[in-house]
Amino acid sequence: MPLALLALAVVAFGIGTTEFATMGLLPEIADGVGVSVPRAGNLVSAYALGVVVGAPVLTGIGARIPHKRLLLLLSGVFVVGNVASAFAPNFSLLFAARFLAGLPHGALFGVGAVVASRLVAPDRASRAVSRMFLGLTVANIVGVPAGTALGQHLGWRSAYIAVGVLGLLALAMLAAFVPHQPRGRQSGIRHELRAMGNRHVGIGVLTAIVGFGGFFAVYSYLVPILTHVTGISNSSTTLVLSLYGVGMTIGTLVAGPLTDRALRPTLYAGLGSLALALVAFYFTVHSTVPALVTLVFIGALGALVTTPVQMLLMAKAKNAPTMAAASNHSAFNLANAGGAWLGGLAISAGWGWTSPALVGAVMAAAGLALAVAGGLMDRGAPSEVVASAADGQEAALNAPATKTAAAPVAPAAPAPASASASASASASASASASEGTPPRG
Fold it and tell me: What are the Major facilitator superfamily (MFS) profile domain coordinates in residue numbering (predicted)?
């Protein structure tokens, strides 16, 4: 792993820790700022709202800023938001600080994904992006339990201070290891927004919201499901959540190579298998060992979906992939909210604690239908692929089909020398967002 990818993974680790550790510290936070636990739960919503708002807004504001500088600025906002959370004297200011901490989340992942895809050979771009996401999944195994334990023993403010220190470490690593990647000549907010108007980008974002919402329909109520139905004690739920994180890590590791090889088939298989695993969980949840095995699969399959969706959006946004990549994380947070809401409706309707599993299965199946619809829309359409930044430019490729994705793409007809050079540079990156089939003209 290049050190620059390690730096991006550390950023993702910090983001994952601060996003989910709050959930485990709600009783301590509620006592600390003098509010009820349900009201303290609004802090989770404040962070998610910051992600949804910040991803397009901060990416748009930074559309002309070189990627490395933008990463440093966004990491600085992340550090400030978490330090402000640690020292907030009351609930209102803490709410504002959590919103601030969430603002750079989506933009950091979006810019980071584009940077990561250009740090390696084009046919390993998806693997590079998945290595960055690995920091997020490892946070569920190490960072969240450690942050929760730290907050419970030394006070909840210490957890946010620790995340702030981690953010400073990531900032230093980004400054030291990430190379300069200049923006293309056509970069700018209008250019990014024009790319976002692509209907393929829209259906990709909708796929992420609906399909990944199935994952969150269960994840949001996992602790009460395990305690009320499976019979696992409250003291053991942290270990179970870590096991869930192990599944997510496995899925992330597998997602990169599979996405490089066949993007859309990986997305279809991930969503379809997730729907089946959620149905299986509905039946296995009553027995401890089968329930835990099924949970590992759910975690792995949920994580398997993230990389192909990310690469698909970057591909379909043509030569302005940054905002599309960032908006993917807004979509995941909307999936979080939507999945939790629908799962809660099922429980409130008296369908039982296991009902969110079936709700999640339906949502995952609906996400698969949307993904297939997007694939059908692509038939006969040009394949728009994020190009390498070897010359500092962002380009798109419309090339004729070849027999293998790994083979060089030749122009359909002789072209002028300058156009040939441009096409050659773009073709070298086609595997970075390949859909399992070669680009079609």
Answer: 2-379
What one-character-per-residue DSSP string does 135-197 give? HHHHIIIIIHHHHHHHHHHH-HHHHHHHHHHHHHHHHHHHHHHPPP-PPPTT-SHHHHHHHHT
Each domain of the chain, given as residue ranges in start order, spans: 1-183, 189-379, 388-441
Are 86 and 33 in contact by the 8 Å Cβ rule? The answer is: no
For domain 189-379, give the CATH superfamily: MFS general substrate transporter like domains (1.20.1250.20)
Name which of 397, 410, 405 is nearest 437 in CA terms: 405
Read off the pLDDT of residues 168-197 as tens digits, 9 standing for 90 and up: 999 999 999 999 877 655 555 666 666 666
> Two tokens at 189?
């907010």
List Cα–Cα distances, 344 to 313, 341, 377, 420, in angstroms.
30, 5, 34, 56
Return the structure tokens found at 277. 């695993």
What pLDDT, in 10s, does the model give residues 313-364?
A: 888 776 667 777 777 778 888 888 888 888 888 888 889 889 999 999 999 9
Look up residue 335 and give its amino acid.
A
Measured CA angle at 281 (ends 276, 241), to 5 deg? 115
- 111-148 pLDDT, tens digit each: 888 888 888 888 888 888 888 888 888 888 888 888 88
- Which of 3.40.630.30, 1.10.3980.10, 1.20.1250.20, 1.25.40.10 is the CATH number of 1-183? 1.20.1250.20
Instruction: Provide the token pair at 441.
Output: 């003209």
136, 162, 11, 152: which is closest to 72 by C-alpha? 11
Q: Report the alpha-carbon distance of residue 289 to residue 159 in Å, rounded.
A: 32
Q: Dig out the tokens for 375 from the structure.
A: 């694939």
Residue 358, token pair as written in the block: 């079936």
**Calpha distance 314→301 (Å, rounded):** 21
CA atoms of 132 and 116, how far apart (whole Å): 7
> Residue 328 and residue 321: Cα distance in Å, rounded?
11
Residue 304 CB: number of other CB atoms within 10 A?
Answer: 27
| The pLDDT of residue 196 | 65
